[in-house]
């Protein structure tokens, strides 16, 4: 799995003219890439992937709401 910084965790650094679209598109792309790995993983890794997605979705919602964009589901 790739390690790195997720744009939704640094949403306050994104230009307000492209918010929240660019953050949501980035999250969707990251989610799709992770789900490609999910298909070929064992049960332990599948659980890890689902937990990562859940944690990052919470971070996305928190950061967007904190910046005044509401919660996106």
Mean pLDDT: 91
Query: What is the percentage of strand-forming residues?
Result: under 5%
Report the strand count: 0
Number of helices: 2
**Uncertain stretches of 5 or more adjacent residues:** none
Shape: elongated
Q: What Rg is obtained from the alpha carbons, in whole angstroms?
A: 13 Å
What proportion of the residues is helical, as a percent range? Answer: 55-70%
Structural class: mainly alpha
Q: What's the end-to-end separation, in Å?
A: 24 Å
Order of H and E elements: HH
Please outline the major beta sheet: none
Q: Determine the oligomeric state from the structure.
A: single chain
Overall description:
This protein has a domain at 19-66. The protein contains two helices and no strands. With 73 residues, it is mainly α.
Descriptive tags:
mainly alpha, single chain, 73 residues, 0% strand, 2 helices
Question: How would the blueprint of this fold be written?
Answer:
Layout: H1 21-39, H2 43-66
Helix pairs in contact: 1-2
């Amino acid at each position: 799995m790739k390690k790195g910084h997720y744009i939704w965790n640094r949403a306050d650094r994104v230009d307000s003219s492209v918010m929240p679209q660019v953050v949501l598109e980035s999250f969707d792309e990251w989610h799709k890439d992770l789900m490609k790995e999910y298909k070929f993983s064992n049960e332990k890794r599948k659980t890890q992937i689902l937990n990562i997605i859940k944690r990052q979705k919470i971070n996305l919602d928190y950061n967007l709401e904190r910046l005044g964009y509401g919660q996106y589901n």
